[in-house]
Write a structure and sequence with these properties.
Radius of gyration: 14 Å
Distance between the termini: 24 Å
Protein name: NIPSNAP family protein
Helix content: 25-40%
Number of domains: 1
Strand content: 15-25%
CATH class: Alpha Beta
Domain NIPSNAP: 2-94
Number of helices: 3
InterPro entries: Dimeric_a/b-barrel, NIPSNAP
Pfam families: NIPSNAP (PF07978)
């Protein structure tokens, strides 16, 4: 995911990111981290995570707007205004040989 963030609210974005890293991990995915502005664009952040399959990702997505922990994580974003816009792109990873397996 690519986020346009409010640079003045980066601490709130970090709280939002930590909550989602935990949720992805606890619900079957592997979170590869958030990549926050450092040099160059000061308002762009990236998140990379994978699930074993599209079906597993869809099970995870069913919790959005329903699961209290997912709602609480989104509340951080909504109440702080730290995310101005985001885009979701689906890709398949090509990982180094030593990376954990991601398929059934």
């Amino acid at each position: 995911m690519t986020y346009t963030v409010d640079p003045a609210r980066i601490e709130a974005f970090e709280s939002f990111a930590r909550a989602w890293m935990d949720l992805v991990t606890r619900h079957g995915g592997i979170h590869h981290g958030y990549f926050l502005p450092s040099e160059g664009k000061s308002d762009e952040a990236l998140a990379l995570f994978t699930f074993p399959s599209l079906a597993a990702y869809e099970v995870y997505r069913q919790r959005f707007g329903v699961d209290p922990e997912f709602i609480a994580a989104d509340r951080i974003r909504d109440e702080s205004g730290c995310v101005l816009r985001y885009e979701r792109t689906f890709m398949r990873p090509l990982l180094p040989a030593e990376a954990p397996e991601l398929h059934d």
